[in-house]
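Good day; I would like, with your permission, to put a structural problem before you. I would ask you to consider whether the tokens describe a fold that such a sequence might reasonably adopt. The full record is reproduced below for your convenience:
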Amino acid sequence: MKQMEVTIMGQSYILGCPEGGEQSLLEAVGNVDREMSAIRDAGKVKARERIAVLAALNLAYALAERPLPAPAAPASSKREASADGASTDIDALIKRIDQTLGADGQLL
């Protein structure tokens, strides 16, 4: 396994990367850095941990919203049924995160 140094929101990290996966890792790091920087730059959240969690949720939601090829009709109907509750699930996750983190990172 190869190690790569990357920068996310101005902080360096050493990450393990399988041989041949460098470009994919750099794309992932770029996505995370852009998302975290956008949240930070919006000015509403200050704590790095909260920014990271919100960025992870945003990226996971975007990934879940990507259309998937339907190999069989039952699988696609299950996907459509779960998509209806996706925003409710995200709202519940954000609420749980806010309860767990408390006032950490909130503007005064």
Observations:
- Residues 74-82 have pLDDT under 50 and may be disordered.
